[in-house]
Amino acid sequence: MPELTGSSALPLVPARSGPRRAAPPRHLADLDPAERRQAVKDLGEREFRAGQLSTHYFGRLVRDPAEMTDLPAASRERIAGALLPSLLTPVRELACDGGATRKNLWRLHDGALVESVLMGYPDRVTVCISSQAGCGMACPFCATGQAGLTRNLSTAEIVDQVVWFAGETARGALPGCPDRLSRVVFMGMGEPLANYNRVIAAIRRLTDPAPDGLGLSQRHITVSTVGLVPAMRKLADEDLSVTLALSLHAPDDELRDELVPVNQRWKVAEVLDAADEYARRTGRRVSIEYAMIRDVNDHPWRADLLGRLLSGRLAHVNLIPLNPTPGSRWDASPKDVEREFARRLRAAGVATTVRDTRGREIDGACGQLAAAEEMS
């Protein structure tokens, strides 16, 4: 279940029924430094071994115990086996854009499927990660939302996606791109703020200095939400400098009730107020995500309404050309419509960009690869 305090934000699509799933194995990334030292001590080892293990995992991006030569040979396998269990098993890996975009489908210990996407650019490398297996938010144009929620990911299952790709990047997996992963976006499968505690713990692991964490900049982390207002307000209290991305997709309640069903609980005005509070508390501009859907939300009057709503706010709009799900009735807006929508927003004084489309030929939209694997 989502881990929110105060107002509950239960999934709008219930978790899939079935036998109770075993918890993921405990992993180094689930633990803070003090907990790691205690875990190593409980194994009968000296506490400083925890720092050595953390240096290998977060600093050197090493997973193979055989490479951890500063650990005693007699206890190397035991320490690594207890604190670095395998969490992600590759199922499929697809590449496009000349190898600069890579999408991985992973199977977790209980058979659940999740996806991550690595995107390389000349000046940066970004990974898009999942925070849940499936999603309970039920957005009808999203493959993950239609699949329903399987379960929340553990902190380590979230972090391990990033560490895996950080290692691939360091080994030169992306031609013509930097050899260091620099940005993380929580825009894969799931609603991050519905798995609040583990997502926050994962952010701290990713941004803690090495060897305690991966040492990424908080300002290079983006957390998306469909608008879970209590969690958005809670995030503003965390003293983090991450970017908040609000998946708005419609400026009016009538349409947003359909496209983003959680809007039936928290309306556009309340969601934008929570976004304003986050921007005010952190000084960070909020990204307004808006999927451009043909003849649904791309009308000129909706662009004008969105411009009026956002004028004067510390926000910018990220227009997203829809990556249609096979067999879906939803389709992307024509480019001339997209350009006119952007023009109207800019005329209203709202900073607007159109997202670079990546991965269309490899089922780039979140949930598509997992859905195909489930069907097969």
UniProtKB/TrEMBL annotation:
<feature type="binding site">
    <location>
        <position position="135"/>
    </location>
    <ligand>
        <name>[4Fe-4S] cluster</name>
    </ligand>
</feature>
<keyword id="KW-0698">rRNA processing</keyword>
<dbReference type="GO" id="GO:0000049">
    <property type="term" value="F:tRNA binding"/>
</dbReference>
<keyword id="KW-0411">Iron-sulfur</keyword>
<feature type="active site" description="Proton acceptor">
    <location>
        <position position="115"/>
    </location>
</feature>
<keyword id="KW-1015">Disulfide bond</keyword>
<comment type="function">
    <text>Specifically methylates position 2 of adenine 2503 in 23S rRNA and position 2 of adenine 37 in tRNAs.</text>
</comment>
<dbReference type="GO" id="GO:0019843">
    <property type="term" value="F:rRNA binding"/>
</dbReference>
<dbReference type="InterPro" id="IPR006638">
    <property type="entry name" value="Elp3/MiaA/NifB-like_rSAM"/>
</dbReference>
<keyword id="KW-0004">4Fe-4S</keyword>
<dbReference type="GO" id="GO:0070040">
    <property type="term" value="F:rRNA (adenine(2503)-C2-)-methyltransferase activity"/>
</dbReference>
<keyword id="KW-0408">Iron</keyword>
<dbReference type="GO" id="GO:0070475">
    <property type="term" value="P:rRNA base methylation"/>
</dbReference>
<dbReference type="InterPro" id="IPR004383">
    <property type="entry name" value="rRNA_lsu_MTrfase_RlmN/Cfr"/>
</dbReference>
<dbReference type="GO" id="GO:0030488">
    <property type="term" value="P:tRNA methylation"/>
</dbReference>
<feature type="binding site">
    <location>
        <position position="142"/>
    </location>
    <ligand>
        <name>[4Fe-4S] cluster</name>
    </ligand>
</feature>
<keyword id="KW-0949">S-adenosyl-L-methionine</keyword>
<feature type="active site" description="S-methylcysteine intermediate">
    <location>
        <position position="366"/>
    </location>
</feature>
<dbReference type="Pfam" id="PF21016">
    <property type="entry name" value="RlmN_N"/>
</dbReference>
<dbReference type="GO" id="GO:0051539">
    <property type="term" value="F:4 iron, 4 sulfur cluster binding"/>
</dbReference>
<feature type="binding site">
    <location>
        <begin position="190"/>
        <end position="191"/>
    </location>
    <ligand>
        <name>S-adenosyl-L-methionine</name>
    </ligand>
</feature>
<feature type="binding site">
    <location>
        <position position="323"/>
    </location>
    <ligand>
        <name>S-adenosyl-L-methionine</name>
    </ligand>
</feature>
<feature type="binding site">
    <location>
        <begin position="247"/>
        <end position="249"/>
    </location>
    <ligand>
        <name>S-adenosyl-L-methionine</name>
    </ligand>
</feature>
<dbReference type="InterPro" id="IPR027492">
    <property type="entry name" value="RNA_MTrfase_RlmN"/>
</dbReference>
<dbReference type="InterPro" id="IPR040072">
    <property type="entry name" value="Methyltransferase_A"/>
</dbReference>
<dbReference type="InterPro" id="IPR007197">
    <property type="entry name" value="rSAM"/>
</dbReference>
<feature type="region of interest" description="Disordered">
    <location>
        <begin position="1"/>
        <end position="27"/>
    </location>
</feature>
<dbReference type="Pfam" id="PF04055">
    <property type="entry name" value="Radical_SAM"/>
</dbReference>
<keyword id="KW-0489">Methyltransferase</keyword>
<comment type="similarity">
    <text>Belongs to the radical SAM superfamily. RlmN family.</text>
</comment>
<dbReference type="InterPro" id="IPR048641">
    <property type="entry name" value="RlmN_N"/>
</dbReference>
<feature type="binding site">
    <location>
        <position position="139"/>
    </location>
    <ligand>
        <name>[4Fe-4S] cluster</name>
    </ligand>
</feature>
<dbReference type="InterPro" id="IPR058240">
    <property type="entry name" value="rSAM_sf"/>
</dbReference>
<keyword id="KW-0808">Transferase</keyword>
<feature type="domain" description="Radical SAM core">
    <location>
        <begin position="121"/>
        <end position="360"/>
    </location>
</feature>
<dbReference type="GO" id="GO:0002935">
    <property type="term" value="F:tRNA (adenine(37)-C2)-methyltransferase activity"/>
</dbReference>
<dbReference type="InterPro" id="IPR013785">
    <property type="entry name" value="Aldolase_TIM"/>
</dbReference>
<protein>
    <recommendedName>
        <fullName>Probable dual-specificity RNA methyltransferase RlmN</fullName>
        <ecNumber>2.1.1.192</ecNumber>
    </recommendedName>
</protein>
<keyword id="KW-0963">Cytoplasm</keyword>
<dbReference type="GO" id="GO:0005737">
    <property type="term" value="C:cytoplasm"/>
</dbReference>
<keyword id="KW-0479">Metal-binding</keyword>
<feature type="binding site">
    <location>
        <position position="224"/>
    </location>
    <ligand>
        <name>S-adenosyl-L-methionine</name>
    </ligand>
</feature>
